Every structure is written in C-alpha cells, then in structure tokens.
Amino acid sequence: MTQTSPSPDRNLLLASLSSADLALLQPDLDPVSLELKQVLESANEPITHNYFIDHGLASVVASNGNKRRIEVGLVGFEGMSGLAVVLGNDRSPNENFMQVGGDGRRISSDRLIAAMQKSPSLQRVLLNFVHSFMNQISSTALSNGTSSIEDRLARWLLMAHDRLDDDAIPLTHEFLSLMLGVRRAGVTVALNALERKGVISLTRGQILITDREGLKAGANGAYHEPDIAVA
Amino acid sequence: MTQTSPSPDRNLLLASLSSADLALLQPDLDPVSLELKQVLESANEPITHNYFIDHGLASVVASNGNKRRIEVGLVGFEGMSGLAVVLGNDRSPNENFMQVGGDGRRISSDRLIAAMQKSPSLQRVLLNFVHSFMNQISSTALSNGTSSIEDRLARWLLMAHDRLDDDAIPLTHEFLSLMLGVRRAGVTVALNALERKGVISLTRGQILITDREGLKAGANGAYHEPDIAVA
DNA sequence: AGCCATCAGTACGGTCTCGTACAAATCTCG
DNA sequence: CGAGATTTGTACGAGACCGTACTGATGGCT
Q1: What three-state secondary structure class fits A137?
Q2: Lowest mean per-residue pLDDT among A75-84, B9-18, B65-74, B136-145
Q3: A117/B120 touch (CB, cutoff 8 Å), yes or no
Q4: What's the pLDDT tens digit per position in B122-157?
Q5: Residue A92 in contact with partner chain B when CB distance is under 8 A
Q6: Inter-chain contact B64–A221, Cβ cutoff 8 Å?
Q7: Cβ < 7 Å from nucleic strand D
Q8: Distance, in angstroms, between A80 CA and closest chain B CA?
Q9: How sure is the predictor about B4, in pLDDT bands with cuts at 50, 70 and 90?
Q10: Number of Cβ within a 10 Å radius of residue B25
C-alpha cells in the first residue's frame, strides 16, 4: 500500500484534538517530508521542533555514553516527537530518528509550548500520549530483560506493523540488530525461525507480515495489543 | 544511619516547590509510614493517592500478563508515586511498592489534580519529575538489553544508594533477583564478584556499599550519575 | 551486461545465563 | 538452647547469545 493519505487527520494526536485546539496549532504546523534516517531530535541537544508523524516510523534510541545503544520506543502516526518539550524540558538524553521514511507536520517547540499554556485540553491530549509512550518504554525494558531475541523481534515487528499501514516493513537485519541491541546474525537466525513458522516472509531489505495472529502467538507474551490507545 | 529526618523538606519535590505551591498542597498532605512491601499503586487499578517519599525506596515493576515481571524504575526521597495521575490518567499498567520501608506524605489524587490545575508552576515541577523518571526507565531498558548481571546489579545498587542516606541496603538476593529478572543464584554470584573487587560487603540480608567510586567503575557505564536531578 | 556494494545465511568456539538442586550458614522464636 | 525457616554459596549440564568471519545472493549503477 504505502499510500500517502492526504487526510489532514491522519495523525491520531492531531485528529483527536477539538477543533478549537487544532485551530490553535494549525497556523504553526508545517507539512514536512520525513526522510529515512532523518533526525527529529538529538541526544542532549535543544529540541527546536516537534514532529507529528503522518506516515513512517521513528525510533527513540537510548545510548550509554558512547558504546551501547538500543531502541526504547517506536513512534508512528499515533504520536509525536519531542516529548521532553511537552514535559517542560528542552532536551532529552535520547535520540529520535526516522526508521522508515514518511511525512508529517512539525511545529516550532516555542509555539507548541505557547499553545499548551493557552489550552489545557491540548496539554491533556499530549500528556496522555506521554503516558502511553512511557508505558511503551516500560514494556521495552521488560522484554529486553526477560525475552529471547525471537520474542523481542516478534514484538518489534508487531509494533512496527501497528504503525505502518503496510504489511511490508522495509528494513535490513543489520538495522534491526542495532535496534534490539543484538548481533546482526542473531536477527537473521530469529527471522528465519519466524519465517519457518510461516508468520513472515523475507526478501532482501524487507519483512512481510503474513500472519499477524501467528506472530502474536510467537511473541510469547512479549507483545501487548494497544500501545496505540488513544484514550 | 537510617535516621528519620523530621525535616519537612526532605522530599525533593516538595522541597523544590514555591511556598505558595507548598501551601496549596499542605492541607491535604498526610504523613504516612511506608512499610516494607506496602503497595503504593497496583497494576491497572485506579490510583487513589500519590505518595511523596521522605525515607525508603519504592520499586516500579512492569509485568507481562502473568509470568514475567521486572523492575523498571526506583523512587526514593527525590520523587513520588502515581505518575499516571500527573499525566491525567487514573491508572498505570505498572505496580509500585515499597522495597525498603520508610515514610512520607500522601495526598488524595483528586486534591493533587485540583492543585495542579490551580498552579501551573506546581504542575511544571511534577512534570519535570515525570521526565526524569521516563529517562530512568529508558536507562533501565538500555541496561536490561546490553549489560551483564554484574553491571546491572552495580547500577541498581548505586541507584538505591542515591536514594537512601545509608550505605547499607537491606535486601536479600532473592528480592534483587526478582527486580532484575534473573536467577537468585545469578545475583549471589554477581554480588560475590563485586565483594571480591572490594566495593561492597555482604552480610545476611544486607549489602553494604564500601566503595562507591569503585562500584561505578565496575558498572561498566551502566550507571549514569544523576537520575536524581532536580532541574 | 558486468562490477561493486550491500545484504543475508551459516559456522565456530567461547561466555553468559539458565533451571534446578542441595547443603551450609544464619536468624527467629518458642 | 534448639527446631524450623530463611538466606546464601555452590554445582551441574543445557541453552542462548556472543564476536568474528566467510560465502553466496541480490540489487544498483555505469
């Protein structure tokens, strides 16, 4: 599919705003194309813009000084970048970049802050997303600590699938290994195991999800349905 | 030491409030004793009170359906429980309970919400804590995914030490193994290794930190100094 | 069409952690 | 003081994952 919905309410956060709140943001929202590997925020650097993703997938990555890196969360059309700003801070120790290219709208962080101060209901919506994202990070911590590579991979694929309206996920094993913090070869083996179970189908640079339910069963409880809840 | 500071500004969140904001909360703050294993919030249950810890240590634990459990964060006198409420939600999928007994003050969540609505500066302080706690969870996800048991244990001990004004941490290996999501025997071995390095000293039911700097070095970068920052 | 860079499959020994089990040490309480 | 319960030390083989490396497959580009 990989279609580009021109629908203005593609992003779930923006879509869930009252018309008054949306009107508040609208003048400052700029449509942007989000290229693969584009950086939405850098570790410990001031955040200048917040991005509302319409299509594509962004990774939030934590790093340990210099060597170890691992993904702690995934954001797609259900969310936004720059949560530190929503929490009143101007930077975060984590990095955020596009894992799968797409598009969205961005707003200057100053303008967003001003809008939140003006509208408690807007702030409420954004804080609600912060909460669900925090839960996603918790869940990542849990599966990093207790699940096998295959289970973590299945969870990752399901989460990515939730955030892309496409059964094909365009990623290399190498990239996935960086996200999960494991060997590239380990990803290859785990993906092949999942393919042998008949739940995905592999081609170079792409993972096709063919049996979502089976994949869930294979995740051994590492995946919980709705991180995406828009309460 | 394990002294009980009667100081009213022991809790760093409360201490950092303006006098007006503190006055806003004061009438609703009830001093409470926090017993070992006391539950401050249950998974997916409505949160009725928020606790500001003065002494002691609370664990935030994520769980996976029924089987797997793991600690994602630690809270002491620098923080509070019930962050979901601060984010406008009434419950969280995580559990929160006292890991080391102590005391604190609690407030009905309704009153806290009312106070936050009245005072943006109060809300700012609490949201700032949410941010630093979110960073702590990220850091947990990172070390769960990339560090050895010994390094994760060193990180845990340092974080606990930051939050207790005592070099003695009263915990069994069994308890620690539940927190880290590993075998009890694995904790014993790792603790013994740390003791052989001369950075801690073990007695039944207690871990004494004797060389904090050495422990940091031993953590292999798993520990980052200030999760405790009160910006 | 053919070259080159990227990507994927596989293998090896080594290390870490697992699950399980048992015995020694230590504390509690009658 | 002694019995029972809790906590800790240690062992074993099994499995997961590691770092590394090599080869073959694929796709882009000239």
Answers
A1: helix
A2: B65-74
A3: yes
A4: 999 999 999 999 999 999 999 999 999 999 999 999
A5: yes
A6: yes
A7: A 148-150, 181-186, 190, 203-205; B 172-174, 184-185, 188-189, 191-192, 202, 204-206
A8: 16
A9: very low
A10: 19
Q: Which two tokens stand for residue A80?
A: 């936004």
The amino acid at A15? A
Give CA–CA dist A103/A99, Å, rounded.
12
Q: Cα-Cα-Cα-Cα dihedral of A206, A210, A215, A218, to 10°?
A: -90
A52's tokens: 């509302």
Q: Does the pLDDT at position B225 exceed 80?
A: no
- Determine whether the interchain pair A64/B143 forms a contact, defined as Cβ–Cβ distance below 8 Å: yes
Q: Does residue B184 carry a pLDDT above 80?
A: yes
Name the closest residue on chain A to residue B121, using Cα atoms: A88
pLDDT at A113 exceeding the cut of 80:
yes
Contact by Cβ (8 Å): B231, B225: no
What the block records as the tokens of B107 is: 């407030």
A-B CB pairs within 8 A amount to 129
DSSP state of B198: T
CA angle B45, B50, B52 (to 5 degrees): 140
* Strand partners for A52: A80, A105
Contact B141, B175 (CB under 8 A): no
